[in-house]
Amino acid sequence: MADYDYDVGLEGEEDFYPDFYPDNYALSDDDKLSPWNEQEGLPPMSLYQLYYSCIYPTISDGLNHILKAVAWCVVYRITTQTVKIPQQFGHIVSIACGSMVMYHFFGHHLFYMLAQGVIAYLSLVASANRSKKVNGWMCMLVCISFLLTCELFIVDAVHWHMIRAAQMLVAMRAISIGFQLDENVLPNLPKPLPYFGYLYNVGTVSFGPWIPYKDYLNVEAHNRCLGRCVVNILKTFVLSLLFLTVSACFTLWLIPSGSSKWFLAYRDAMSFRTSHYFVSYLSELTALAAGIDTSQTSLWTVTVTRPWHVELPRSLVEVVIHWNIPMHTWLKTYVFRVARPYGTFVAILGTYGLSALLHGLNFQLAAVLLSLGFYTYTEHAIRQKLASVFSACIQARKCGSNCKHQWKESHWAVKICNFCFSLLAVFHLAYLGLMFDSSKLQEEGYSWLHAIKKWKWLNFSSHWIIVSTFAFNYLI
């Protein structure tokens, strides 16, 4: 582990650990299906046919849900941010509007989200008066135990698959409050109304993003630059629908089923990634509509993902950072840094383990996370060594302004080298992302046999390449 230096961000903080989180894709256990589960031999559609058979119904169905969520966000914003009202009433409105959105998407299963919030609060109350600062760890243990109990014994697989992402967000918010108490960021445990108003805020309850508790409390202070806010709302609205149609329609249309298996792998991985961008921009949309601003500037933005850093990556390290920025921040703040005193390896392992547990017991997810962690570890180590040997700006992260390398980013050889590493990252993303293809299969969870079959179809080529790279890094 001596050669394993963590990537340092602009503020000198470690940014290198996996937080590549698949969204809720349900894959089947049926290994008799073809790897891409499609009918072969169908004639290609015209763009006109694609519009009426896929684009129009997809957008119509998407708008039906999006507009209802945004409507409740607007109700919350008008009620709490256009007139002066008591703070306690604002928290009540936040809970009420959030509950309406939860009921729309999850029906009576919102009970499990409410129950988790109550149980987490009771754990914080029980640990708040202890001399040792264990609020965060205690809340984390309780939340994970609740999630696993529901998944294994209480909720059926299909419905748990439907609500698990929202359940994870509730757990993340409660756990962050626990660690803020431990770090004295919060002097006291919040009262029930602001606590539940934060957990079930209408702008973040269903799709995210995770926001710090202080950003929720400051929501009334963000009535500035309303014109800019409206522009950003429209932008995120258009982008969310754009990525929805790309995921559901255009990827299958542009790369037909008769293509080579690597093109098909790239297509299915891209379909998954664009579905993630859809959810990410939708979460930005609801947060902005509810009056949430995390930009700390006059631009009024909520940044969840940066697709251009994922689709055209410098490295896999950048992919895991820009895939879900709020979750990356949460993991770095409340998991990695907290566990860092126990050793780097323990911190990495803890981050992997917690992220997998929060997402549920899922072999495919665990396989992708562990693989991605090994990939980024190896990529970072080999590029750091090569950058040192050749004194060139070819590290996994772009060099800062104080870079002392002899060969800078503008040198033609450095550009070629970084471009080759980018192509390799795209190759690995296609291989890993194939696990979460766009097939309309069952929603009971993921089979280990299905996962192995996917990678076996591609001869485990990406794993062989990264193992060879790891061996080369060890030898040099």
In terms of topology, how is this protein built?
Layout: H1 47-81, H2 87-106, H3 110-128, H4 135-154, H5 157-182, H6 192-199, H7 213-217, H8 226-254, H9 261-289, H10 307-311, H11 316-322, H12 325-339, H13 344-359, H14 363-390, H15 412-433, H16 448-457, H17 461-475
Helix pairs in contact: 1-2, 1-8, 1-9, 2-6, 3-4, 3-5, 4-5, 8-9, 9-15, 12-13, 14-17
Family: Belongs to the membrane-bound acyltransferase family. Porcupine subfamily.
Pfam families: MBOAT
Transmembrane segments: 110-128, 134-155, 193-213, 233-255, 342-375, 416-436
Write up this protein:
The chain is mainly alpha-helical and about 475 residues long. It folds into two domains: about 325 residues, no CATH class; about 140 residues, no CATH class. The protein has 17 helices and no strands. The N terminus is likely disordered. One of its GO terms (biological process) is Wnt protein secretion. It catalyses: [Wnt protein]-L-serine + (9Z)-hexadecenoyl-CoA = [Wnt protein]-O-(9Z)-hexadecenoyl-L-serine + CoA. Keywords: Acyltransferase, Membrane, Transferase, Transmembrane, Transmembrane helix, Wnt signaling pathway. Pfam families: MBOAT (PF03062).
